[in-house]
Description:
By secondary structure, the protein is of the alpha+beta class. The chain has one domain (25-98). The chain is built from 2 helices and 4 strands; from the N terminus they run αββββα. The chain has helices at 2-29, 75-98; strands at 34-35, 44-48, 52-57, 61-66. It has a 4-stranded antiparallel sheet, with no helix packed on it. It is elongated. The mean pLDDT is 85.
Amino acid sequence: MVGSWQAKAQAAGMLLALLGWVSSCVTTFVPLWKNLNLELNELEVWTMGLWQVCIAREEWGVECQAHGSFLALPPELRVSRLLMCLSNGLGLLGGLLAAPG
């Protein structure tokens, strides 16, 4: 009886770890990291992500463009990009090492 409880707890832990890793990967690629709106222009909503800049306009919809260069990013987004990639890589490595155990 105790062995089956432990197996269920381990399976639930692995499922939660996988869910956390997937949500971390999704968060890395969503372009909602920084809001660049100005109060003067309410027709455009500028958002900056780690990988692209998106402009949402009322008439045309959403238009996204990739960043030109890593060094052109603001310092906080450069550090965030590095830390999120490191987090995703270590999460994947941790999940792969924990799965056989």
